[in-house]
Design goal:
With 257 residues, this protein is an alpha/beta fold. The chain has nine helices and nine strands. The protein has two domains: 16-153, Rossmann fold, CATH 3.40.50.620; 179-251, no CATH class. The longest helix is centred in the C-terminal third of the chain and has 17 residues, at 216-232. The protein has helices at residues 24-33, 48-58, 84-92, 114-127, 156-165, 170-176, 197-207, 216-232, 239-251, and strands at 16-19, 37-42, 63-67, 98-100, 135-136, 139-140, 146-148, 184-186, 189-191. A five-stranded parallel beta sheet has the order 3-2-1-4-7, with helices on both faces.
Length: 257
């Protein structure tokens, strides 16, 4: 659970906090934004056991894991947790005044939209104002909470491209990023399923940046999923990237018809 003795925002007002999972978006933002705190919220969902195991291997001193069991509100069929990011951003504001969440162009959930993030920033500025104990003649001084949204303008492949431009190692990124909602337990640890949303998104992100070091089984499953997505939802904004990836897959002969 949350420890009230943690070095929280009102003790250290200028801290950058990244809501961190070790997945695609948050891993690259960690490398580009250089946060002070990597906040991982264990909501109790199935795949988080594998995520936490992977995060501990990173051995990053900035990592802080807290328990907040939102799983009790999870829809068991869709795995959707309503208002999840409202809760997560509020928790992040207890650890620093500059907050970033892994949100990019492809994200279409209501609690990752520009309007939500703007309204959430204003809400946190109001509800957390009293903790700085500053009152003016006109009322309470607002807190200086900021929610960073500049990465919201980038696609996942462009996020990776910025990391590479900064001198990042694409092979290290592929091996370190843990993105899977249906991980498979093996004797050697956890294996990605290759088909879930994070898995195939990771595949097309790296594929469109020229990476070809993907394991054959992972590659086959991700390509199958991409083909399905392109066929079913061509007009979806995210699938513009998948169309581009699918054309490149066909061009290189990576799909066995």
């Amino acid at each position: 659970m949350i420890n009230p003795n943690d070095n929280q925002h009102w003790l250290s007002p200028d801290k950058k906090v990244l809501l961190y999972s070790g997945g695609l978006d948050s891993w690259f933002i960690k490398e580009l934004w250089n946060p002070d705190v990597l906040l991982y919220v264990n909501m109790g969902v199935d795949y988080q056991e594998a995520e936490i195991e992977s995060l501990k291997k990173e051995n990053d001193p900035r990592l802080k894991i807290i328990e907040f069991p939102l799983v009790q509100f999870e829809d068991k069929e869709s795995k959707f947790i309503p208002a999840r990011n409202l809760f997560l951003l509020t928790l992040a504001a207890l650890y620093g005044n500059r907050i970033c969440i892994g949100a990019v162009v492809e994200d279409t959930m209501p609690d990752k939209t520009d309007i939500f993030l703007h309204m959430m920033e204003k809400t946190l500025q109001i509800v957390l104002a009293q903790r700085v104990w500053e009152y003016s003649g006109e009322g309470i001084s607002l807190s200086d909470i900021q929610i960073e949204t500049k990465y919201k303008k980038l696609t996942k492949p462009k996020l990776l491209a910025k990391y590479i431009q900064k001198g990042g190692d694409i092979f290290k990124a592929w091996e370190t990023i843990s993105s899977c909602h249906e991980p498979i337990k093996t004797d050697d640890g956890w294996m990605p399923c290759g088909r879930c949303n994070p898995c195939y998104q990771k595949f097309y992100t790296f594929y469109l940046n020229g990476f070809r070091g993907v394991e054959e089984d992972y590659k086959r499953k991700s390509i199958e999923r991409i083909k399905e997505e392109v066929t079913i939802r061509r007009k979806h904004n995210r699938l513009k990237l998948l169309d581009e990836c699918w054309k490149q897959i066909q061009k290189e002969g990576d799909y066995d018809k």
